Amino acid sequence: MHLQLSNIHYTFSDHTNVINDLHLTIEKGEFVSLIGPSGCGKSTLFNLISGLEIPNAGEILLNGHSIVGQRNHASYMMQKDLLLPWKTVLENALLGAEISKQNLAESKKKAFELLPLFGLEGYEHYYPHVLSGGMKQRAALLRTFLHQKEMLLLDEPFGALDALTREHMHEWLLSVWNKLRRSVLFITHSIDEAIFLSDRICVLAPKPTNIIAEYNVTLPRPRNKEMVLTEEYISLKKQLMQSLQ
């Protein structure tokens, strides 16, 4: 067991109950998606895991050790790429390593090794304003992976992309994940995105949230768009749609 959340409760300062008795486990190297209605507390849950917020009650363990209120144990990427416009692709990628005081020489070497995998070879000295939306997201994900944490928290990283670019990014992300095998917790509003990417999908209730349904995705890997026509895919999509009603 890699990440374990037990009996998590969280209330905003205005006494709004956001999370109510949530339980979640993620195995090492597993890709798990969270899906639920807008405003149900998905991003708040990420803030708790990353140590930006502290639960009112409950336990958060990473590899058996409590991480409540502790930071710098997970890489966190939000929907916006948050690239600094005055820094190049390479400089942006190394930003997390700089902040966490990792060995910059080693991080730079690793960045150059990963540039081809992230489709950014030859673009390391480009600035964000000349990159496409998909390339900006790949640069932001490179920074996230370079942070060298086993746990990745991805909060709708492709939400702002057009549909075609988003489909390409799904296949690309799985190819990267398959090679680097980090544990991923992925927030999405898209049932299709969740099915295509995940080993497991957790459905969240409206606020105050907890997990109301959980589905194992047994579709074979590597995945491709043809699988959306299979009976297994269609059946799982129907179940998820019913859970979200």
UniProtKB/TrEMBL annotation:
<dbReference type="InterPro" id="IPR050166">
    <property type="entry name" value="ABC_transporter_ATP-bind"/>
</dbReference>
<dbReference type="Pfam" id="PF00005">
    <property type="entry name" value="ABC_tran"/>
</dbReference>
<dbReference type="InterPro" id="IPR017871">
    <property type="entry name" value="ABC_transporter-like_CS"/>
</dbReference>
<dbReference type="GO" id="GO:0005524">
    <property type="term" value="F:ATP binding"/>
</dbReference>
<dbReference type="InterPro" id="IPR003439">
    <property type="entry name" value="ABC_transporter-like_ATP-bd"/>
</dbReference>
<keyword id="KW-0813">Transport</keyword>
<keyword id="KW-0067">ATP-binding</keyword>
<keyword id="KW-0547">Nucleotide-binding</keyword>
<dbReference type="InterPro" id="IPR027417">
    <property type="entry name" value="P-loop_NTPase"/>
</dbReference>
<dbReference type="GO" id="GO:0016887">
    <property type="term" value="F:ATP hydrolysis activity"/>
</dbReference>
<protein>
    <submittedName>
        <fullName>Hydroxymethylpyrimidine ABC transporter</fullName>
    </submittedName>
</protein>
<dbReference type="InterPro" id="IPR003593">
    <property type="entry name" value="AAA+_ATPase"/>
</dbReference>
<feature type="domain" description="ABC transporter">
    <location>
        <begin position="3"/>
        <end position="231"/>
    </location>
</feature>
